[in-house]
Amino acid sequence: MSTTTNGKRTSERIIERSQVTVSERRYQGTRELQTYDADQAPQPYWNPYLSGVLLGLVLLTSYVVLGTGLGASSAPSRLAAQMESWVAPAHVAASEYFGPWGDEPLAYYLVFMFVGTFFGGLFSAVLARRVKPQIERGRAASVNKRLLFALVGGILAGYASRIARGCTSGQALSGGALLLTGSLIFVTCMFVAGYATAFLFRSQWDD
Predict the structure, then answer these.
(1) Which of 36, 93, 161, 207 has the fewest Cβ atoms within 10 angstroms?
(2) Sequence-ordered list of residues with C-beta below 8 angstroms from that of 182, at least 6 positions apart, any chain
(3) Share of the chain above pLDDT 70, in %
(4) First-to-last CA distance in the chain?
(5) What is the reported pTM?
(6) Can you spell out the DSSP letters for 32-45?
(7) Residue range 52-79: mean pLDDT, rounded
(8) By three-state DSSP, how is residue 186 classified?
(9) How far is it, in rounded angstroms, from Cα 15 to Cα 162?
(10) How many CB atoms lie within 10 A of CB 161?
């Protein structure tokens, strides 16, 4: 009888130890998984106020060193001129808009700034572990609808930036820093239009 009782107790102890060992392994595995997730998690965004100050210092440096401000929409325009010149050089040379840029429209400082901004942003995203190919959209918007809106919005923004002779970088930042009347009007209209369109299209993002 005592032998049977001792055998049961021994079996119970072995089972308890096995359960403890399994629990410890699960806990350790969970901790390792949590540590792995923490290591792979994206880094937080920078403080927007600090980023704004740094951007202002970059703009100030541009004026001091180059004697002019920043811009982004000029680079795609000059790239379009370069690509069109490969097909119809005579047409580009005779164009009132593209013609003054000469035979090498890409030889312009804002083109190099555009390239540097792209690769600098990519490098920063890689370091912050934020590179994830995907289509940003709300649940109410399908992929095709999101891409269509992005295409139409990009065309309108690009066309308008050339009419206004500057985008949010050239007009709002560079022109606004000089307190130019046209730039201040541009910024005002940009915010009014932004709030108006946000009211119309926010249902596509309101999840």
Answers:
(1) 207
(2) 171, 175
(3) 79
(4) 68
(5) 0.67
(6) HHHHHHHHHSPPPP
(7) 88
(8) helix
(9) 76
(10) 22
Please name which of 50, 51, 70 lies closest in space to residue 60, comparing C-alpha atoms: 70
Tell me which long-range contacts 106-113 makes (C-beta under 8 A, separation of at least 24). 106/78, 106/79, 106/82, 108/74, 108/75, 108/78, 109/66, 109/68, 110/70, 110/71, 110/72, 110/74, 110/75, 110/78, 111/74, 111/75, 111/78, 111/79, 113/70, 113/71, 113/72, 113/75
What the block records as the tokens of 196 is: 């108006």
How far apart CA 137 and CA 124 sit, in angstroms, is: 23
Which range, of 39-43, 47-51, 71-75, 191-195, averages the lowest pLDDT?
Answer: 39-43
Q: By C-alpha distance, which of 140, 133, 153 is closest to 193?
A: 153
CB 189 within 8 A of CB 181: no
Amino acid at the residue 88: A
